[in-house]
Automatic annotation (TrEMBL):
Its cofactor is FAD. Signal peptide: none annotated. GO terms for biological process: tricarboxylic acid cycle. Keywords: FAD, Flavoprotein, Membrane, Oxidoreductase, Transmembrane, Transmembrane helix, Tricarboxylic acid cycle. Belongs to the MQO family. It catalyses: (S)-malate + a quinone = a quinol + oxaloacetate. InterPro entries: FAD/NAD-bd_sf (IPR036188), MQO (IPR006231). The gene is mqo. The chain crosses the membrane at residues 21-41. Its EC number is 1.1.5.4. It comes from Modestobacter muralis. Pfam families: Mqo. This is Probable malate:quinone oxidoreductase.
Amino acid sequence: MQQTIDARRHNVTSDAHNPDVVLVGGGIMSATLAALLGIVAPDWTVQVFESGAEVAGESSGPWNNAGTGHSALCELNYTPARPDGTVDPAKAVAINEQFQVSRQFWSHLVRSGLTDSPKSFITSVPHISFVTGPDGHRYMRNRYDALAPLPLFAGLEHTDSPGELTDWVPLMMDRRDPTEAVAATRSLAGTDVNFGALTGLLVDAAVTRGVELHLRHRVTRVRRETDGRWATTVTDLASGAKRTVRSRFLFVGAGGGALPLLQGAGIPEIRGFGGFPVSGQFLRSRNAALVARHQAKVYGQAKVGAPPMSVPHLDLRLIDGEQSLLFGPYAGFSPKFLKSGSMWDLPRSVRSGNLGSMVGAGIANIPLTKYLIGQVLQSTSSRFRALEEFVPTAESGDWELITAGQRVQVIKQDPNTKRGVLQFGTELIVGADGTIAGLLGASPGASTATAAMLTLLERAFPDRIDGWRPLLQEAIPSYGHQLSENPDLLAEVRADTTKTLELQG
């Protein structure tokens, strides 16, 4: 990702200590919120504080995630099987709806001059689900039957023919046992997204219109002042100097770093929440011959006891003009909440308000703990055998191990049982008076950033949202509507975004 950092990003306005909005973190969430505020409240002053030397250095970075445009076209953990074997499509529909919102917003920004080439951040890549064995074969047929009739999943294909799969995924079928039962679905509407490049474009656009970006500035404390403003204390990592800015609204979009800051803010809404960090690694291949034989993103089924973020997948990636393959993830454990975090992040996050949740979630997720221990102790040969299940002809010399971003899974208190539960997904925390908000959690976060930030605007600014609605609907035509219930609108926005983003029709 080419990142241009110039002096404009560090200019100080005449009221630099009292901006309207402070955004903590320079990732896709803060960048998306800044873009939305530029539409609905262009006169508001906004400051962004990022501890890294560039934006998108943590989870939004292109090699810190798989780049899947999460729309539930291939991710099997979004389509769970019911006890009778049928498949529940509800979560898949919800996530696909949210990704369509992102596509519409990105299309609007491209038309507004965000970039001359949307291919710098989004490209068409087929999304394929792949399973083996009799149980997988039955599940895949039931999944197809549940999704194919739905408008959001129009064009979904199913096959259990080894010959047809050789056309779809030749690298995966080469030398595969011919007696093995296989089945798959494919959607040509899938995408690969470089969220790092997208974040950079959004931040550059925000800076151009006056948003202040402060790189290498770490937020160390947030506190509520008597006049209702939020005082955010930041340290300039280059000079060591500290200062405090006071804002009417504060958003903490700092990935894994959001939890301790929200805890420090003392808002009651964060009570009971905890975080469980999970690290990840991928095997990457830049072998052009292999890449040419795998032009798709292929998701399989998670091992028993594995978290959803550990669903194995073999992905085509396009980053900075270069195609490569990514396989994984291999889960691991580190007490850090960020790749650049501290080994004390996890223990420091345990408070009296979330101790019960943390202990309860730990007891309830012993299989997950065992799984993570096994992953940490996994040998190189064991790790490679997992790849061979996808690519029978894989050779170790073609692959290198890389470390992905750190994810902090949400632990929250069940309102009914009062026990802690581990939640895979994202959680938006908004203070009661709407002056502070933060986002916790992981996948499918980046793909659904626009929907998440729209929800934030609705919850944090209920007195303004009606006045903003026409502006938001101009940028996102489906805003306020369900595409799954409006096939005509779905066809319209799908055609528009496909053309504007230069995707495959």
